[in-house]
Design goal:
This protein is of the alpha/beta class. It has one domain (14-240, 250-258): Lambda Exonuclease, Chain A. Helix content is 48%, strand content 18%. Strand 6 and strand 7 (210-215) form a beta hairpin. Helix 2 runs antiparallel to helix 3 and helix 5 crosses helix 6 (101-117). The two termini are 38 Å apart.
């Protein structure tokens, strides 16, 4: 069954990923991906892996919401099915050195085991994979996204976002992350409640770790977000797309060859 968020994304919209790509990754990559809709020259295996891991955790969360739990085998089987489907759907998939389909399966199984052992939301889940679509003052398209999980302890409502990572996050990362700002902004607009936000970061290491990074946002953060979002839209409308020559994402960029030639043909 097609998820609600996928149906919503079929129409023109803004998203955290699009805004973050322009602001924090590379505005030229934004052009290739969101304006030109260019087919990727290569896609890192981490994207298929991350989507499959999210899907497996969503299944676990759905079960927890109704007071049940998947067995380890059931969770692993689901992850294997999701990962297989993602790999088959991706064009020009590439693996990192010493990485294979089978090795990533085993990594996913270890990560799921540790995540379930550390799971703290069995009795507090309110929503799983909840789509949102909101209006941001000044933007000409809705802002669409999906909350991985929404939990409450009777006092605080908290948005939970699951992340896979090659290494542990530095302590200050969550407080600077644009996603937490956008998602708490959206939840407050929809529900009139300012939620807490938590990143659950699971490392793709031989011995996976699971860390919870809590963060909050305030009205000043939201004013700043609206300003930045409108500036991105203004720059896009004016055709301002430039390469971030030293971006962290250059090594695995799906548009590396296009980037090398863009200054000759223009965009």
């Amino acid at each position: 069954m097609e998820r609600t968020v996928e149906k919503a994304r079929a129409n023109p919209h803004w998203s955290f990923s699009a805004l973050n790509t322009y602001l924090n990754v590379c505005s030229l990559k934004f052009y290739f991906q969101y304006i030109e809709h260019a087919p990727p020259e290569r896609t890192g295996s981490c994207f298929a892996f991350g989507r499959a891991f999210h899907a497996a955790l969503s299944a676990q969360a759905y079960m927890a919401k109704v007071g049940q739990s998947l067995s380890e085998k059931e969770g692993n089987d689901l992850f294997a099915d999701f990962f297989s489907a993602e790999v088959k759907a991706v064009e020009n998939l590439v693996y990192k050195p010493k990485e294979t389909y089978d090795s990533l399966l085993e990594t996913g199984f270890r990560m799921l085991r540790e995540t379930v052992l550390a799971w703290q939301d069995y009795y507090t889940i309110r929503e799983v994979a909840q789509c949102f679509s909101i209006e941001v003052p000044g933007l000409d398209m809705p802002l669409i996204g999906e909350f991985d999980c929404v939990v409450t302890d009777g006092k605080d409502t908290c948005i939970v976002d699951w992340k896979t990572s090659a290494s542990k996050w530095p302590g200050e990362k969550a407080d600077k992350d644009l996603q937490a700002t956008i998602y708490t902004y959206a939840y407050k607009q929809m529900n009139g409640i300012l939620p807490l936000f938590r990143f659950d970061v699971v490392t793709k290491t031989k011995t996976p770790s699971v860390e919870n990074h809590y963060t909050r946002r305030n009205e000043e953060d939201f004013v700043r977000f609206e300003f930045l979002a409108n500036k991105v839209q203004e720059a896009v409308q004016k055709g301002v797309f430039l390469p971030a020559e030293t971006s962290f994402s250059c090594a695995d960029c799906a548009y590396a060859n296009r980037c090398k030639k863009f200054h000759r043909k223009g965009v």
